[in-house]
Amino acid sequence: MTLQQLEYIVALDTHRHFVNAAESCFVTQPTLTLQIKKLETEMGTQIFDRSKHPIAPTKTGETVIESARQILREVNRLKEFVNTEKDDLSGTFRIGVIPTVAPYLMPLFLKSFTDANPKIKLIIREIESEQIIQDIKNDLLDIGILATPLDENSLREVPLYNEPFLVYAAEHHPLYQEKEIDATGLPVKGLWLLNQGHCLRNQVLNICSQRRNAQNNNLSYESGSIETLKNLVRNHTGYTLVPELAVRADDQTDKRVIRFKQPEPTREISLVVHQSFNKEALIEHFRAAILSHIPDHFKKAKTFNRIKWR
């Protein structure tokens, strides 16, 4: 058994395609196939079920691949420890950000962060929470920015801020007349929601104590964008709940935006890394850059009601 063979089975599990896996490892497809067969023979078990399309691990193979990922992660950690100091701010880092955070938070600090750290290269992807969690576990991402808590033993959460939820209501909706809103009194009718899979959708439903999409009677619209929901409210009817950063760039006198009564419902946003991640200086600098660009009350709220999504 070699580290190279472990890299091959991890690549094949990631891509579920022999040619793509081989290309990711910079070897030919026959070389990768032969080495995986050798490993299976040595271990006396089939790691992949080749009758499935796309190819998939066997039940035993899933355990082998999980162990292989952990071994490779520890090897890479050892290499980093030997080759660089923990406070060295250089290298390439893969970051996953949930779509309801990315367009509002990332533009605030990315330029100043990259200007201050020219030796760091960031590869950033907008993906949903569950995929970020799996990609960190599978060593496909280094850092996630998403809503917490996650209650995952293999992951470490570094809280950033608590972001209030706000009501965004159409002019003819009853909520439009309110100065502050009691979260327990939100109406069922007219609520616009994001698609299934967005953690923000689950949080909104938890605030409203609803487990179903109760939109307008003659129109159902599933969206993956907060901006689409805001436009539906502006040009149609109903209301939605949005995180505060999603409306801070808008006209601050917009009467569609209504705060909740204290304690405000909030979502906790955190940096999430694998427990084996050892670039503490990167985490500290990244966190400091973010905190320097968000409203003070996100960090200093004395009373709030943190809404979970899991």
What are its keywords?
two-stranded antiparallel sheet, D-Maltodextrin-Binding Protein, domain 2, single chain, 9-stranded mixed β-sheet, LysR_subst-bd, Arc Repressor Mutant, subunit A, alpha/beta, 11 helices, 41% helix, 310 residues, 3 domains
Tell me the layout of helices and strands.
Blueprint lengths: L2 H13 L2 H8 L3 H15 L4 E2 L6 E2 L1 H25 L7 E7 L4 H15 L3 E7 L2 H9 L5 E6 L6 E15 L10 E2 L17 H10 L17 H10 L3 E5 L1 H4 L8 E4 L3 E11 L5 H12 L4 H5 L3 E3 L4
Parallel strand pairs: 3-4, 3-5, 7-9, 10-11
Antiparallel strand pairs: 1-2, 5-10, 6-8, 6-9, 6-10
Keywords: Activator, DNA-binding, Transcription, Transcription regulation
GO molecular function: DNA binding; DNA-binding transcription factor activity
Organism: Roseivirga misakiensis
Rg, rounded, reads 23 Å
Task: State which percent range the strand residues make up.
Answer: 15-25%
Give the domain tally. 3
User: According to CATH, what is the topology of the largest domain?
Assistant: D-Maltodextrin-Binding Protein, domain 2
The percent of residues in helical segments reads 40-55%
Order of helix and strand elements from N to C terminus: HHHEEHEHEHEEEHHEHEEHHE
Structural class: alpha/beta
Number of strands: 11
Total count of helical runs of at least 4 residues: 11
The level-1 CATH class of the largest domain? Alpha Beta
CATH structural architecture of the largest domain: 3-Layer(aba) Sandwich
Low-confidence stretches: none
Q: N- to C-terminal separation?
A: 39 Å
The main sheet comes to: 9 strands, mixed
The CATH H-level superfamily of the largest domain is: Periplasmic binding protein-like II
Q: Any idea what the shape is?
A: elongated
